[in-house]
């Protein structure tokens, strides 16, 4: 619930109708929010939720002229200490048997330095045209955006 509560709190203070100056809110999801992950079903579900929530509230913010843009960053594997936990059964629990699949995914997508995520963050902050976008960042493909079909309808409100 922290992403939802934090987003609503940010909108309350930032939106122009409440005396704010506008701005951008960037929520962090994961590549696991864009595909199924057999070894992380709950993590996967929450990351899908972050994307759906952020894209939906971005439409609302646009329709209501809040002056606030909302986007999501979905990084792949990042070179942090948590990656070392894959080899430890006590950290992986019932999903330890999937460790080889995870390692294969790490090899496919690559493991990136955190600085590339900062680069993506700066792109979203500086590009005023980005709203409701989902930025994917991987070592193998760099910074790119998830493609979605056009929303079939929007309110004329």
Automatic annotation (TrEMBL):
Cellular component per GO? cytoplasm
* Gene3D superfamilies (alphabetical): NAD(P)-binding Rossmann-like Domain
The UniProt entry's GO biological process terms, in alphabetical order, are:
prostaglandin metabolic process
One Pfam family cited in the UniProt record for this chain: adh_short
Keywords on this record? Fatty acid metabolism, Lipid metabolism, Oxidoreductase, Prostaglandin metabolism
Give the E.C. number(s).
Answer: 1.1.1.141, 1.1.1.232
Q: Which GO terms describe its molecular function?
A: 15-hydroxyicosatetraenoate dehydrogenase activity; 15-hydroxyprostaglandin dehydrogenase (NAD+) activity
Catalytic reaction(s) noted: resolvin D2 + NAD(+) = 7-oxoresolvin D2 + NADH + H(+); (11R)-hydroxy-(5Z,8Z,12E,14Z)-eicosatetraenoate + NAD(+) = 11-oxo-(5Z,8Z,12E,14Z)-eicosatetraenoate + NADH + H(+); lipoxin A4 + NAD(+) = 15-oxo-(5S,6R)-dihydroxy-(7E,9E,11Z,13E)-eicosatetraenoate + NADH + H(+); (15S)-hydroxy-(5Z,8Z,11Z,13E)-eicosatetraenoate + NAD(+) = 15-oxo-(5Z,8Z,11Z,13E)-eicosatetraenoate + NADH + H(+)
Q: Which InterPro entries match?
A: NAD(P)-bd_dom_sf, Sc_DH/Rdtase_CS, SDR_fam
Q: What does this protein do?
A: Catalyzes the NAD-dependent dehydrogenation (oxidation) of a broad array of hydroxylated polyunsaturated fatty acids (mainly eicosanoids and docosanoids, including prostaglandins, lipoxins and resolvins), yielding their corresponding keto (oxo) metabolites. Decreases the levels of the pro-proliferative prostaglandins such as prostaglandin E2 (whose activity is increased in cancer because of an increase in the expression of cyclooxygenase 2) and generates oxo-fatty acid products that can profoundly influence cell function by abrogating pro-inflammatory cytokine expression.
Family of the protein in this entry: Belongs to the short-chain dehydrogenases/reductases (SDR) family.
Protein name as catalogued: 15-hydroxyprostaglandin dehydrogenase [NAD(+)]
What is the scientific name of the source organism?
Chlamydotis macqueenii
């Amino acid at each position: 619930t922290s992403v939802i509560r934090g987003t609503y709190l940010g909108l309350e203070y930032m939106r122009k109708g409440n005396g704010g100056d506008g701005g951008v809110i960037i929520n962090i999801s994961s590549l696991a929010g864009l595909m199924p992950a057999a070894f992380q079903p709950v993590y996967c579900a929450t990351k899908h939720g972050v994307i759906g929530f952020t894209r939906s509230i971005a439409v609302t913010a646009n329709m209501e002229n809040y002056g606030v843009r909302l986007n999501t960053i979905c990084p792949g594997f990042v070179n942090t200490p948590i990656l070392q936990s894959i080899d430890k059964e006590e950290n992986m629990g019932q999903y330890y048997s999937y460790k080889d699949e995870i390692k294969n995914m790490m090899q496919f997508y690559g493991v990136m330095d955190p600085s590339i995520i900062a680069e993506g963050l700066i792109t979203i902050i500086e590009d005023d045209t980005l709203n409701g976008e989902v930025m994917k960042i991987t070592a193998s493909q760099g910074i790119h955006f998830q493609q979605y079909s056009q929303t079939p309808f929007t309110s004329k409100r």
